[in-house]
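A quick word before the example. In earlier lectures we treated sequence and structure as two separate objects. From today on, think of them as two lines of the same record. Here is dTDP-4-dehydrorhamnose reductase written that way.
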Amino acid sequence: MKKIWVCGASGMLGSHFKRLLNKRQLSFVANDDKKIDITNLEAVLDFVRTEQITHIINCAAYTKVDKAETDLKQAYLVNACGPHHLGIAARHQNAHVIHFSTDYVFDGKENLPYTEEHACAPIGAYGISKLAGEIKLLDEFDRSCVIRTSWLFGLPGKNFVETMLRLMNEKAQIKIVCDQMGRPTYAQDLAEVALQFLDKSGIYHFANSSETNWYEFAKEIYRQGKEFQLIQRDCQIEPIMTHEYPTQAKRPAYSTLNTQKIESVLRWKPRPWQEALKDYLTIYKNFQDRQQVS
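And the structure line, produced from the sequence above:
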């Protein structure tokens, strides 16, 4: 019988897993009350052994891309040492690990979607720490599964969609970078796919279909946000280049993920991100309405 441990269960992706596992009536533990620190190897080993865990879904991550540039030690502890510890525990327990990584393991110099076979060359501390986590986990326990994803949004949690909705309600004009390309991913879709990989190993890419840039993504958020009456004012969205919006960390200019490998396994194609965004905003709207009533 499967017993799943959802690490990082209080975060955005972890919350989607909890809802999905409850819906499917699968046995899992989430540690909402007593969090297990995955940077503490002894704590991880003890928990996996005591709870007789068969599968580990690692949603725990250090995701502050800019802050990682000056906080590399903590980013490395969570994103590299954490997955390594989970791999050690899984090997001892003969369990299975699903770990999530990022498009930021690539340098963005390609002009075609990145496959799992492309050489990794992260250009920032965050990507470096995530790539180290992939390597450490798979070297420790090759029965592990790494799913790289990109531009993740979901509920609850801070993400690009939520930030845009807030800014579009606050400002008459916003400026959004238009020269970084990628594929948005709805956390719900990622969770549903990942549950089909509980017993698989290797590296896979997953994102919703259709390539876009942050500016076009923002425009679609505005259009749908207006339809859902989540945006109460007019807001002008202006495209700008990356060099006009300096950040601590460099971002890859092109980080579109090729998802053909995972599609061939599933015999199924991910839906367009625009459709996934509509589902997300439906849930977001209901959540907002309930908050107003309470």
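Notice the following. The mean pLDDT is 96. We will return to this example when we discuss secondary structure assignment.
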